[in-house]
Amino acid sequence: MHAYYFDNIPGDQRLPHDSGRPVSEKALRSLGVHNWHIPVDSENWKQRVTDIAEERQCRKCNDIMGTKEAMGDKFDEKMKTFFTEHMHEDQEIAYVQAGSCYFDVHEHTTDDWIRVHLVAGDMLNLPAGIYHRFTVDTGNSAHVLRLFEDEDKCGIYNRGAETDASSCRLEYLKRFTGVAFGA
């Protein structure tokens, strides 16, 4: 896993867009983002992923096969959809089983994007209410296992006034800033 501030230069979302300003794991944790590396070729990787999911009370999962072969003609459209800034009402755990990708998280204190590059074996936990987006990198291939607590709360809520004022978003801000919003 490699994290840094996104450079905000227009262009292909699959490019690194590395500003040269690294972001530490401590800074990610201050946003509620946690990460692990569990090599896919290790003997007990499935059990370690299961243990983390159970510890975080995640019981629902789905696979994203972010490849042109799997998505066919809908690949570019899906990548644009995933790259639209959004949040979920549930935490999201993403484990990269193959390939590589980016998760960008919005730093609420600066409104900057932090880009996290993940490769096979990397696992990322995003808290409920954090704005984020996803894309494959230039390899155009990522097999990502996504885990949620509740299937009913894993819907996508694109950023907008209504989502900004949602109880989930306000709870996230309160939890990670200590300030009550919208009161």
Q: Determine the CATH superfamily.
A: Jelly Rolls
Q: What number of domains?
A: 1
Number of helices: 6
Q: Spans of 5+ residues with little confidence (pLDDT < 50)?
A: none
Strand tally is 11
Strand content: 35-45%
CATH class: Mainly Beta
**Structural class category:** alpha+beta
Rg, rounded, reads: 16 Å
- Based on the coordinates given, report the CATH architecture: Sandwich
Q: Which sheet architecture does the biggest sheet show?
A: 9 strands, antiparallel
Order of helices and strands: EEHEHEHHEEEEEEEHH
- Give the overall average pLDDT: 92
What portion of residues is helical? 10-25%
Gross geometry: globular
CATH topology: Jelly Rolls
First-residue to last-residue Cα separation = 37 Å
Q: Your description of this structure?
A:
The relative contact order is 0.23. This protein is 24% helix and 37% strand. It is of the alpha+beta class and 183 residues long. The strands form two sheets. Strands 1, 2, 3, 4, 6, 7, 8, 9 and 10 form a nine-stranded antiparallel beta sheet that branches. A two-stranded antiparallel ribbon has the order 5-11. It has one domain (2-177): Jelly Rolls (Sandwich), CATH 2.60.120.10. It has helices spanning 25-30, 45-55, 68-71, 75-82, 161-164, 167-177; strands at 2-6, 18-22, 34-37, 60-67, 86-87, 92-107, 112-119, 122-126, 132-136, 141-148, 157-158. It contains six helices and eleven strands. Keywords: Amino-acid biosynthesis, Cytoplasm, Dioxygenase, Iron, Metal-binding, Methionine biosynthesis, Nickel, Nucleus, Oxidoreductase.
